[in-house]
Design goal:
The structure holds 2 protein chains of 2 kinds. By secondary structure, chain A is mainly α. Chain A has 2 domains: about 1-65, no CATH class; about 75-325, MetI-like fold (Orthogonal Bundle), CATH 1.10.3720.10. Chain A has helices at about 1-15, 15-20, 30-65, 75-80, 90-125, 125-140, 145-165, 175-195, 200-210, 215-225, 225-245, 245-250, 260-265, 280-290, 300-325; strands at about 80-85, 90. A two-stranded antiparallel ribbon of chain A has the order 1-2. In chain A, helix 8 (about 175-195) packs antiparallel against helix 11 (about 225-245). Chain A is flat and about 70 Å long. Chain B folds into 3 domains: about 1-35, no CATH class; about 60-175, no CATH class; about 195-430, MetI-like (MetI-like fold, Orthogonal Bundle), CATH 1.10.3720. Chain B is flat, with a radius of gyration of 31 Å. Classes of the chains: A mainly alpha, B mainly alpha. Chains A and B meet through helix 3, helix 5, helix 6, helix 7 and helix 8 of A and helix 2, helix 11, helix 12, helix 13 and helix 15 of B.
Chain lengths: ~325, ~425
């Protein structure tokens, strides 16, 4: 026993100064850790550099485009023909085709997608939902070139068979728009379903308790509560439709639909005709850059000017989506 | 109760009340049917998409041979009885002895062509299979005169047979455009021999570069944002930025890649800085440019998914690690990352399958339309499966459309495999705390 007790006594006899040398509890500087910290930080800000890079590249090349003697910003915005061969650069035909395809897509996808979302979230049985939801998400991952193939070989053929091949051209805006609608359908349905599903069940039960039918509960209680998520889904879908490239490159046509003048465009609503070919902004960029593009040609500069226009449009939609989420958010 | 209320003037009586309820129920049932119809329409349309691809991948073709295999067999291997059906004759040509095969080639091909083939690889050293293919390609020379979809082949067989009977020297064969030969053959301008091999290798190379670049950088960025960055203006900026980048159309990334990787960094991405590459690849339109462009494209997706996975690691694990005196990096490396790995990998695989499916940015940075040689490094010219499908779809001849459909099946099979891996990973390693 005594020898056991002697141990701590001996330890206490150790000089205090010696202890301090052995155990230093202050934080040490580690060169490796700072290095790692630096790498992590750089990776984090790389995304900022990417954005800056995109904006700089688009702006500088677009500026080079507008500096050329044959181009003017005013004509770019107001002329109704895009014919690089004869030096006419009016963005309207390209923007018009983009808006037309997106509009057709949206008309198809938004109502249908929302109805599918409502069915899955409010009506379908749990097993049905468990099967359909992952299938939808998987379809959202199908490459767009596959949808392009579908547009050209199937939808166009059906349109031509139904409406007459003299009325519907082989390459037409309508088929491209319809298929973009099919492309964004899973996105709309899946995102809206998420939003509807997130609405607390107590709200539904309260409505049922007051004697509301399932439809009334859905339309008057659940839908308004999920408005924030649904509007975000809609805007993201529109943004996807505007930026969609391969479907229009394959199915919409390989040349801008030009108009002699604004009057010509409006006559008989020619600019809205879905059965003729028209090249969208994205389609034009793909076709022009498909060949070996020389860096000092006007075509090279022009795709950046179109790209800038597209970037501004989608950026505005993204910002609108963020705003909508905040504006319509309901907290429970 | 109701009796008393219903005596209030203007309040509906029992009969009207029942009418209201009936009407509301009817409206409910009507809309319910409408929602169901919408869902069915969606399912029908999306199945049409898949069926359409299958429809174009198989079907009858009208084949015309320059020299019939049966005639060859009669001359060179009279003992072997030719089969009745067209397809089997080809197989017999592949099974002949090598001496006979070489003899056939020497008898039917020009001296110049033989010399060229010998210089690639001496005929005597080639395998039976290779020689057989060579005979079919160069001597038999089948041409597809016409082709039909699966639907037509099944339901309009009589009409097709009548049509083919009128064609001179043509025979009808049921052909699967998706076949082993299609997967291993390089691109060709003859649809009879075109394959997707170069495109598959190109896709794999491009995506390999993409992964090497975007996975470490994306995970590092996620770690920085979740574990290191203090809440502040810089972090908010980075966060908004990443969300915005995820919504930028892919073709814009193509423009970025064209201006930065292809044009500005040409000596680097063209390989001339390292003394590799030749005149055709020094323009910077190479695999590495494509890989980096797609890397930037999927970076936001990887970051967003990795952040969620890291955030799901419970705080207690970090605190335990700090409590034992671990530094921040030790905590991240030994505890947070291993726990978050399944989630990070699942998200990354989905991002990678996005990279496999991208077409537009690759067209913009200048993927080559027609390559026969396999890519042999990051500085070679490239084509990918999606580019190949796009090129085939854009051609007017029906035969190339069938090739595109077969290519799509290969691509979708690959993506399905990736997705299945992601789901398996999620289920296998999912932990609950």
């Amino acid at each position: 026993m005594q020898s056991d007790l002697s141990q701590p006594i001996q330890a206490m006899n150790v000089p205090v100064a010696q202890h301090q040398e052995v155990i230093d509890l202050r934080r040490r500087r580690r060169a490796g850790e700072s290095l790692i910290h630096g790498f992590l930080f750089l990776s984090g800000v790389l995304s900022v550099f990417t954005t800056v890079g995109i904006v700089l590249v688009l702006l500088s090349q677009a500026l080079a485009f507008f500096r050329r003697p044959e181009v003017s910003l005013f004509d770019f915005l107001t002329k109704t023909t895009w014919q690089p061969a004869i030096g006419e650069f009016g963005i309207f035909p390209l923007v018009n085709a983009t808006l037309l395809t997106s509009f057709i897509a949206v008309i198809v996808a938004l109502p249908l997608g929302l109805m599918i979302a409502i069915y899955l979230s409010e009506y379908a049985s749990a097993p049905a939902r468990r099967i359909i939801k992952p299938v939808l998400e998987m379809l959202a991952g199908v490459p767009t070139v596959v949808y392009g193939f579908f547009a050209l070989t199937f939808v166009t053929a059906i349109l031509r068979a139904l409406l007459g091949s003299d009325r519907v051209e082989i390459f037409n805006v309508g088929s491209a728009g319809l298929v973009i609608g099919i492309l964004i359908l899973p996105l709309v349905a899946s995102m809206s379903e998420d939003a509807l599903h997130a609405v607390p069940g107590a709200l539904r039960e309260a409505a049922f308790g007051l004697g509301a039918t399932r439809l009334e509960t859905t339309l008057r209680i659940v839908l308004p509560a999920a408005l924030s998520g649904i509007s975000a889904a809609f805007i993201v879908a529109i943004s996807r439709a505007v930026g969609e490239t391969m479907i229009v490159a394959i199915a919409a046509g390989a040349g801008p639909r030009n108009f002699k003048s604004w009057a010509d465009a409006v006559t008989g609503f020619k600019f809205l005709n879905p059965f003729t070919a028209a090249e969208t902004m994205t389609g034009h960029m793909v076709r022009i850059s498909g060949g070996d593009l020389s860096y000092d040609s006007i075509d090279y500069d022009s795709i950046f000017a179109i790209g800038l226009t597209l970037f501004v449009m989608t950026l505005a939609l993204n910002i609108a989506s963020r705003w909508a989420v905040r504006r319509f958010r309901e907290e429970y | 109760m109701r009796d008393r209320v219903s005596q209030v003037p203007g309040y509906p009586d029992e009969k009207q009340f029942q009418g209201f309820i009936r009407r509301r129920r009817r409206r409910g049932a009507m809309w319910r049917t409408l929602f169901l119809i919408a869902t069915s329409v969606g399912i029908v349309v999306l199945s049409a998409l898949l069926l359409n691809i299958l429809d174009d991948s198989f079907g009858y073709v009208a084949v015309k041979n320059e020299i019939e295999p049966a005639a060859l067999l009669a001359t060179y291997a009279p003992k072997r009885l030719p089969m009745e059906r067209g397809g089997a004759d080809y197989q017999i040509l592949r099974e002949l002895s090598r001496d006979v095969q070489v003899q056939i080639l020497r008898d039917h091909l020009s001296q110049g062509l033989i010399r060229r083939l010998e210089s690639e690889q001496p005929l005597d050293q080639r395998s039976q299979e290779e020689l057989g293919d060579l005979i079919i390609e160069r001597v038999v020379e089948p041409h597809f005169l016409a082709s039909w979809s699966l639907f037509d082949s099944v339901f309009h067989r009589a009409r097709i047979k009548a049509e083919v009977a009128e064609m001179d020297g043509a025979s009808l064969r049921f052909y699967s455009w998706l076949n082993p030969k299609f997967v291993v053959s390089p691109q060709s301008s003859h649809p009879e021999f075109a394959g997707i091999r170069t495109a598959i290798l190109g896709s794999l190379w491009v995506v390999a570069i993409t992964i090497l670049f975007s996975l470490p950088v994306g995970v590092a960025a996620a770690i920085y944002l979740e574990e290191y960055g203090q809440k502040g203006r810089l972090n908010d900026l980075i966060e908004t930025n990443i969300n915005n980048l995820a919504g930028v159309p892919s073709i814009i990334y193509g423009l970025l890649g064209l201006a930065i990787f292809v044009r500005a960094l040409q000596p680097l991405t063209g390989g001339s800085l390292f003394g590799i590459g030749d005149a055709t690849t020094n323009n910077g339109r190479t695999i590495i440019s494509a890989g980096l462009t797609l890397g930037l494209l999927i970076l936001p997706i990887i970051i967003i998914n990795a952040r969620e996975a890291i955030r799901a690691v419970p705080q207690g694990i970090r605190q335990a690690s700090y409590g034992l005196g671990a530094t921040r990096w030790q905590t991240v490396w030994h505890h947070v990352l291993p726990n978050a790995m399944p989630g990070i990998l699942t998200g990354s695989i989905l991002a990678i399958s996005r990279a496999f499916g991208e077409t537009a940015p690759l067209v913009v940075i200048g993927a080559s339309a027609f390559i026969i040689r396999d890519p042999d490094g990051p500085f070679s010219k490239f084509t990918t499966m999606t580019i190949q499908i796009y090129q085939w779809t854009a051609r007017p001849q029906a035969e190339f459309r069938h090739l595109a459909a077969a290519g799509i099946i290969v691509l979708l099979a690959l993506l399905l495999g990736l997705n299945a891996t992601a789901i398996w990973l999620r289920n296998r390693y999912q932990r609950s705390y």
